[in-house]
């Protein structure tokens, strides 16, 4: 009996030691003193997101059984680097695109190829910024603030001016002949516009644009989603008064923005919350915000076609494991402090890199869905523009564009 009691006592002490060891290891992981995790060195404080349930979204989302996006053509491989937004000038020339090396380039035909149209930074230099294929890798990140990172592009059809949302230099404009863009607005009430992302121009001249976060810049954009923080804003710049106004705030990674054909509302995406939203800017509902659609993945830009329909670029896709983390911020605090690469942690949650593009009408009804489940043509898609009988598809992270005849 005495031996049995002694063994039970030793087993109890062993269990206490195991619990203590687990607590120490868990505490070490959470503290991450050597910054070995993907969020090491950052004030990482996850919060719960306002996101629709996974099963509810996926049950009603149409599937593209033919993976039609995968039949698109890769164009200009290793000639354009991270072409986030694709734009055509008022004469139909282009496309133009902002690149990860800080330039805005124009396609001038087979004879002349891609030509530099504009720069967003006075400090731009070929030696520092023109790193070719490395422009879309971490090697460029330390220079992005100097070189610039032009994202959303829009031509003013009346003036021919090109308006630019640059991630570091705010809202900018350059004339029809290109050159060095000049800043229009870089701050509000003394606080910087930290992450200008996309824009659109109202018929009255006002420019609506997104400021994705007041906490993280573009280089650290992953932390916006991982943390779930909602400090993003929809802003409006009024050229006559040269003033900038906050239209909406408290947004979770506001990204693409598109004004409707009749100018009565605009759509914008909240990337973290995987949804498409509507803001009424005219009429009886002016100022109201409505949910248009919950999406299966993480939306980027929105672009309108000639019929007044909206193309939304979506990086896919949500998973059930991800939903558990979204609904339990404390789990994210632990999970993303594990000493593994972000790619490995994402893969463990079942995340895959492929793209979906979806066409919506002005009521929010889904008209078409095209995807590329194998990631053959597009693993990450940032914008879809319908022009000249084609879909022109940009990507913020790879060195090509894609085209697909449509319809």
TrEMBL record:
Organism name: Tagetes erecta (African marigold)
Record InterPro entries: 6-blade_b-propeller_TolB-like (IPR011042), Strictosidine_synth_cons-reg (IPR018119)
Keyword Membrane assigned: yes
Cellular component terms per the entry's GO annotation: endomembrane system; vacuole
Strictosidine synthase conserved region domain mapped to chain residues: 197-283
Chief location bin: other
Keywords: Glycoprotein, Membrane, Signal, Transmembrane, Transmembrane helix, Vacuole
Family the entry assigns: Belongs to the strictosidine synthase family.
Compartments where found: Vacuole
Molecular functions (GO terms): hydrolase activity
Ranges that cross the membrane: 12-31
Protein name: Strictosidine synthase conserved region domain-containing protein
Keyword Ribosomal protein among UniProt keywords: no
Pfam families assigned to the protein according to its UniProt record, in alphabetical order: Str_synth (PF03088)
């Amino acid at each position: 009996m005495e031996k049995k009691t002694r063994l039970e006592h030793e087993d109890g002490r062993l269990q206490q030691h195991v619990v203590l060891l687990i607590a120490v290891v868990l505490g070490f992981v959470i503290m991450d003193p050597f910054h070995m995790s993907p969020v090491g060195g950052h004030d990482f404080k996850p919060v719960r997101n306002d996101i629709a349930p996974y099963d509810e979204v996926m049950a009603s989302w149409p599937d593209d059984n033919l993976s039609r996006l995968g039949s698109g053509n890769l164009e200009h491989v290793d000639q354009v680097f991270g072409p986030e937004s694709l734009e055509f000038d008022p004469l139909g020339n282009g496309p133009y695109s902002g690149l990860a090396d800080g330039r805005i380039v124009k396609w001038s035909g087979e004879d002349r190829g891609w030509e530099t149209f504009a720069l967003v930074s006075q400090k731009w230099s070929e030696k520092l910024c023109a790193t070719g294929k490395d422009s879309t890798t971490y090697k460029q990140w330390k220079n992005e603030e100097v070189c610039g990172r032009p994202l959303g592009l829009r031509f003013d059809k009346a003036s021919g001016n090109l308006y630019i949302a640059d991630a570091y230099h705010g809202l900018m404009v350059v004339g029809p002949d290109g050159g060095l863009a000049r800043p229009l607005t870089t701050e509000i009430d003394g606080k910087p516009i930290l992450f200008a992302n996309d824009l659109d121009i109202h018929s009255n001249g006002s420019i609506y644009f997104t400021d994705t976060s007041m906490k993280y810049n573009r280089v650290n954009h992953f932390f916006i989603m991982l943390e779930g923080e909602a400090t993003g804003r929809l802003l409006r710049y009024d050229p006559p008064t040269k003033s900038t106004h906050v239209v909406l705030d408290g947004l979770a990674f506001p990204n693409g923005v598109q004004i409707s054909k009749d100018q009565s509302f605009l759509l914008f995406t909240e990337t973290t919350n995987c949804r498409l939203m509507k803001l009424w800017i005219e009429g009886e509902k002016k100022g109201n915000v409505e949910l248009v659609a919950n999406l299966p993945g993480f939306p980027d830009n929105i672009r309108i076609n000639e019929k007044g329909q909206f193309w939304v670029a979506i990086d896919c896709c949500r998973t059930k494991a991800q939903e558990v983390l979204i609904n339990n911020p404390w789990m994210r605090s632990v999970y993303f402090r594990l000493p593994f690469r972000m790619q490995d942690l994402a893969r463990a949650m079942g995340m895959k890199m492929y793209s979906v593009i979806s066409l919506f009408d002005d009521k929010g009804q889904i008209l078409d869905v095209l995807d590329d489940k194998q990631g053959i043509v597009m693993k990450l898609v940032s914008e879809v523009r319908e022009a000249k009988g084609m879909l022109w598809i940009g990507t913020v992270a790879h060195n090509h564009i894609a085209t697909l005849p449509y319809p």
